[in-house]
């Protein structure tokens, strides 16, 4: 019984510590024309509004959509809470949340026998959530404490698709980007051909085929650019675990500026 009680205490302690860490991401929301996009924001230690800071915009996957302003931190947030990262990088990190009735990317999705099929749209109008995100970034990036030469974006799954989407809609905003298990219509790629990109995908992904990422990579090469492209041959859809473990991910990202 004592061992069980000790185990419960340890679990509760770890859960409490985890929640406390996530609380460092402040809950905020942006409202425009009666619509709201919620987001969590992590400021660097000893934040000084008189200084300028890089910004990382992180776009979550479909499973983290909602209205709780919490689930979007499920994958990726712990990277930015890591003490070594925070002590080495003074950066503002933003995790917006997509609503359940919208999508980051302009893509048509059809489910057949529990299998999802994606058709990426060439051009087209942004979704409601992407429109809100664009309006939010237009406003937030004008803050005097934002270093406009060091704004970055990345995401996974739906957020990887959203990364390509926001790059083509704001190609002159981002200094570099990374997209994990995402995809895009190759006809859109020319819009963001000049943005340094690191593309990741799992070779065994049975949710979003790696062919989508390869298509973007191949098109960029045809346009004369050399993005980084990493395929984890034995990884399924959760290739973000391997991507987040890449020791060069952030050094590479932050090495770029406008």
Major β-sheet annotation: 8 strands, mixed
- Overall shape: globular
Q: What is the count of helical runs?
A: 8
Q: Let me know the CATH homologous superfamily.
A: Alpha/Beta hydrolase fold, catalytic domain
Number of strands: 10
| Class from helix and strand fractions | alpha/beta
Fraction of residues in H or I helices: 25-40%
Q: CATH class, please?
A: Alpha Beta
Could you characterize the architecture of this molecule?
With 258 residues, this protein is of the alpha/beta class. The chain has a single domain (25-254), classed as Alpha/Beta hydrolase fold, catalytic domain (Rossmann fold). 31% of the residues lie in helices and 26% in strands. The chain has eight helices and ten strands. The strands form two sheets. It has an eight-stranded mixed β-sheet with strand order 1-2-4-3-7-8-9-10. Strands 5-6 form a two-stranded antiparallel sheet. Helix 6 (210-222) links the parallel strand 9 (197-202) and strand 10.
List the helices and strands and how they pair.
Blueprint: H1 2-22, E1 26-32, E2 35-42, E3 53-59, H2 77-81, H3 83-88, E4 92-96, E5 107-112, E6 115-120, H4 128-140, E7 146-156, H5 158-169, E8 176-180, E9 197-202, H6 210-222, E10 228-232, H7 240-244, H8 249-254
Parallel strand pairs: 3-4, 3-7, 7-8, 8-9, 9-10
Antiparallel strand pairs: 1-2, 2-4, 5-6
């Amino acid at each position: 019984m004592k061992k069980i009680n000790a185990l419960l205490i340890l679990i509760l302690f770890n859960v409490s510590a985890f929640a406390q860490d996530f609380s460092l991401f402040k809950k905020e929301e942006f409202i425009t024309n009666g619509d709201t996009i919620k987001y969590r924001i992590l400021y660097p230690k000893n934040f000084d509004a008189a200084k300028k800071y890089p910004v990382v915009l992180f776009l979550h996957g479909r499973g983290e959509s909602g209205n709780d302003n919490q689930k979007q931190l499920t994958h990726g947030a712990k990277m930015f809470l890591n003490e070594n990262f925070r002590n080495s990088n003074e950066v503002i990190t933003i995790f917006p949340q997509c609503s359940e009735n919208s999508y980051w990317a302009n893509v048509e999705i059809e489910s057949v026998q529990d299998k999802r099929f994606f058709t990426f749209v060439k051009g087209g109008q942004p979704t409601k959530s992407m429109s809100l995100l664009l309006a939010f970034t237009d406003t937030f990036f004008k803050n005097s404490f934002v270093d406009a030469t060091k704004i970055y974006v990345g995401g996974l799954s739906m957020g990887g698709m959203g990364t390509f989407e926001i790059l083509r809609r704001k190609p002159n905003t981002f200094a570099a980007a990374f997209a994990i298990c995402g995809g895009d219509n190759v006809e859109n790629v020319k819009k963001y051909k000049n943005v340094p990109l690191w593309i990741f995908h799992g070779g065994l992904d049975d949710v979003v085929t790696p062919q989508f990422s390869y298509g973007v990579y191949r098109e960029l090469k045809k346009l004369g650019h050399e993005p980084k492209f990493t395929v984890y041959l034995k990884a399924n859809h959760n290739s973000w675990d391997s991507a987040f473990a890449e020791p060069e991910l952030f050094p590479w990202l932050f090495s770029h500026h406008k």
